[in-house]
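Run log, item B.
One chain of 115 residues. Sequence copied directly from the ordering sheet:
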Amino acid sequence: QVQLVESGGGFVQAGGSLKLSCVVSGTTFSTRAVDWYRRVPGKQRNLVASITTEGSTNYADSVKGRFTISRDNAEKTVYLQMDSLKPEDTAVYYCHIQRFGFDHWGRGTQVTVSS
């Protein structure tokens, strides 16, 4: 059974940093691209960053230059380093993979940025 478990969220002041982690189990991690999404209450979930199996990355325009996605295949973990945080980054952050056409999500981790 595929499981994704996020951690690292919390409360931080604007300008601060947080590092999120997502541990993936139940699949061959090294063969899966991994994404981070976020959702604000009442709005749809939006893609924040992606990393391919080769380590190529892609970012939403709103986080370019501030967030960095990375992966450790030995640890089956993907990270999201978030710097220069802004109040508008406040959201629940979710880890996502797609496997054989099915989407798998973690339960999310809350990030709150105060002004």
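Observations after the first pass:
- The CA atoms of residues 50 and 58 lie 5 Å apart.
- The radius of gyration is 13 Å.
Flagged for discussion on Thursday.
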